[in-house]
Amino acid sequence: MSYYGLVDGTEASLKKYLASFSGVDQVGADARAAILATRSIKAASKRWAIDTAISMVDLTTLEGADTPGKVQALCSKAVRPDPTDSSVPSVGAVCVYNDMVGIARAHLDQIGGEHVGVAAVSTAFPSGRASMPVKIQDTQDAIDAGASEIDMVIDRGAFLSGRYIEVFDEIVKIREVCGNKAHLKVIFETGELVTYDNVRKASFLAMAAGAHFIKTSTGKVAPAATAPVVLVMLEAVRDFYAMTNVRIGVKPAGGIRNTKDAIKQLVLVNETAGPEWLKPSLFRIGASALLNDLLMQRMKMDDGYYASPQYVTID
Amino acid sequence: MEEKLSFEYAPAPESRAIVSIKPKYGHFIGGKFISGNKHFPTINPATEEVLSRIALGGKADVDAAVKAARQAYTTTWSKMSGKERGKYLFRIARIMQERSREFAVLETLDNGKPIRESRDVDVPLAAAHFFYHAGWADKLEYAGLGTTPKPHGVAGQIIPWNFPLLMLAWKVAPALAAGNTVVLKPAETTSLTALLFAEVCQQAELPAGVVNIVTGDGSTGALIVNHPGIDKIAFTGSTEVGKLIARAVAPTNKSVTLELGGKAANIIFEDAAIDEAVEGIVNGIFFNQGHVCCAGSRLILQESVADEVLQKLKYRMATIRVGDPMDKNTDLGAINSKEQLLKIRELTAAGDSEGAERWSAPCDLPGKGFWFAPTIFTGVTQAHRIAREEIFGPVLSVLTFRTPQEAIDKANNTPFGLSAGIWSEKGSKVLWATQQLRAGVIWANTFNKFDPTSPFGGYKESGWGREGGRHGLSAYLKGVSHE
Fold first, then answer.
1. How much is the pLDDT for B148?
2. For a tag site, which of A280, A314, B108, B322 has the least CB within 10 Å?
3. B287 to chain A, minimum CA–CA distance in Å?
4. Residue A2 has what pLDDT?
5. In the predicted model, is pLDDT for residue B2 greater than 50?
6. Catalytic residue among B14, B107, B259, B461
7. For residue A36, is it within any domain?
8. Inter-chain contact B116–A38, Cβ cutoff 8 Å?
9. Angle formed at CA B124 by CA B120 and CA B128, multiple of 5 degrees
């Protein structure tokens, strides 16, 4: 199977496709990201950015200690981030481990959160070190339990040893499992791919294999969603759109902890991929602590002063 | 939420409250502000608001400044140890850092450049030049220039309007470190930061007469160039004026360095990192409204990637934020003067009439002030005026090439030779191209990077001598050869 007719499934065609993209100059990418980080976002534009960022959060809990109670609390927060202010939008989705998908979906539906998606981390998250049948079964389980979004990890070992076709096939197979039931986000773990050249290559590979979203990191490895990495991925989706007329989403995850960081991400989107990407269907931010900082900044803009952290709910 | 897609940045203006501009200024001579006779207005080119009135220096003012400089040289500065001179330079550098916001705001008001650039480039680099040269002051005998290098005496320095404070720093810092005293004339349209620098000299308790600043126009500059009491001339500006200066000083003993115009080639090979190359093109020609002598004003593009690069360049140019220079999000500010705007219009009209294809980024230009949208011309050939003459504005001429040798031939086919850029991921090609290009500064996979440690200057009609680094220092010392 091939998507967009860019690759016919053979290793030769994949290699040819990947060789058609220029490299990334690290110094230049860092410099561009640094300049965009100096944008000063004030007043009405800040308020708009905060609400937009809230609607883009994939509210995440990925701990061994997760319980049904913890996940249900997360779901409540996702639907009504600020229980005292109904004008605060719901987040984009909750992001949980596979076995919590059913619990999350049921609870969201029960509390009026049908519009909030459930994203499941899949394919032997976070390492990706399992056999293909296990990864397929892992994904199938999540979809059967009601996941609307699958956050899969790629096999970084295969990628780093140049077995790109294996990574490509893996994404194609998981996309087939997703079918029309779930959106597929492909996690690169950019902290392990290390170079921007690799990030760019992985981006084009994943998009041609059928990813709906490309995502930086699992949140388990640092560095994660650095500004230059997100810049490189946004340039890739912009170029892919020019080639195919299809817009692929981007999801930075890991390390985005406060409003300032989130607004910097939105500036990157606005001035790189373009304003068309500034919506939850094309840009998500994987985070847990970020949401409360966004809420506190929002309250500050309304009230003119910073409230005590006790005015926002811990989960 | 989903409906509203636009992310309009609300105005984020820097406050101008930090600067206090006097209604009228005089000259700074012998450590004091001396009132002038005639005055002319200096305006904010973004609004045409008159900011202040600047003194027009005449013969008496230049005589007084040269006399003060000579006296300070003879009695104080030449007798002081390098270590002590260095302390003054360090002190000036620190005060410039402390007052950096004041300098940045004033520079942006007077020049029209975006506050982001004056804040992040001009002022920090100016301070860095003083720090760097402060370190040299007590080490001149170890600079490889002989065991007892000597200063010239009184240096006459004439600087342009594109980087007013930074060009002052390039001139004053090495002169003082080497033991010279100076008479400096800022450009007619941008005197305010030089006059603020005079205050810094007072604050640093620099001995009277070591730095003298006489404001004025070209006639004032001519008085400095032709003054018999001056030992060395340093000029940054147009090639036309540079030639006049070279003629004027030829029959004298004056030493001279000239940093003149340019028409830099920015060469994009097909194996370049394209996105970063596009950033480099934008930075090369739209930095400081293109008012940069080393601007990458000729884009020399390999035909195999020309379409891709131009498509990405246009997309990127549409995101350039043009407008109020005081807004922290502005990328491209005002053209420095009406005169310069008319020159840009004249040359771009020649581009149209000679058959090049003009494309400007869609942007709303303010009604008042002097503005020019970021513009590229495609289909330019070597025979076009816009490929040969320095436009000194946000206008890029795009030429193409088929083989590396053709790129080099086109790049070198100009009377100028100040700078060049090479974009390729292939190291051997970069090194080869660097050796072929006849330009004083060559950037590989970057553009418009400046550092006090790095010598800067031109080949051919782009100038004589170097500024910055050990090479630049040597221009302010006698008895050593100048490149």
1. 87
2. A314
3. 13
4. 61
5. no
6. B259
7. yes
8. yes
9. 150
Using CB atoms within 10 A of its CB, is residue B383 exposed (0-12), middle (13-18) or buried (19+)?
exposed
Cβ contacts of A25 on chain B, cutoff 8 Å? 273, 276-277, 425, 445
Question: Is the peptide bond between B415 and the residue preceding it cis, with omega within 30 degrees of 0?
Answer: no
pLDDT in tens, A174-220: 999 999 999 999 999 999 999 999 999 999 999 999 999 999 999 99
Query: Between β-strands B441-444 and B419-423, what pairing exists: parallel, antiparallel or unpaired?
Result: parallel
**Superfamily in which the B265-444 domain is placed by CATH:** Aldehyde Dehydrogenase; Chain A, domain 2 (3.40.309.10)
In a domain, A308, yes or no: no
Residue A288, pLDDT > 90, answer yes
Give the tens place of pLDDT for each residue, B450-478. Answer: 999 999 999 999 999 999 999 999 999 98
Task: Give residue B264's region: left, alpha or beta (phi > 0; psi -120 to 50).
Answer: beta
pLDDT band at A3 (very low <50, low <70, confident <90, very high): confident
Residue with tokens 């005079």: B198
Beta carbons of B218 and B241 less than 8 angstroms apart: yes
What is the per-residue pLDDT for B1? 39
* pLDDT at A282 (0 to 100): 98
CA-based nearest distance A236→chain B, Å: 10
Task: Specify if A309 maps to a domain.
Answer: no
Interval B273-287 mean pLDDT: 98
| Closest C-alpha to A197, from A158, A232, A248 | A232
- Please give the structure tokens belonging to residue B168: 């002052």
Q: Where in chain B is the domain with CATH 3.40.605.10?
A: 27-260+460-478
Q: How far is residue A185's CA from residue B229's CA, in Å, rounded to a whole number?
A: 74
User: Which chain B residues are within 8 Å of A198, Cβ to Cβ?
Assistant: none
Q: Count up the domains in chain A and report the number.
A: 1
Q: Which residues pair with B360 in a beta bridge?
A: B375
Q: What's the pLDDT band for B479 if we cut at 50, 70, 90?
A: low
The reply to whether CATH 3.40.605.10 applies to domain B27-260+460-478 is yes
Token pair listed for A196: 């921007």
Answer yes or no: is A293 within a domain. Answer: yes
Question: B231 is written with which tokens?
Answer: 């030992």
Q: How far apart are CA B268 and CA B279, in angstroms?
A: 12
- Give the span between the Cα atoms of B214 and B156, in whole angstroms: 10
> For residue A185, what is the domain's CATH number?
3.20.20.70
Nearest-neighbour CA in chain A from B116: distance (Å)? 8
Domain with CATH 3.40.309.10 in chain B: 265-444
End-to-end CA distance of chain A: 42
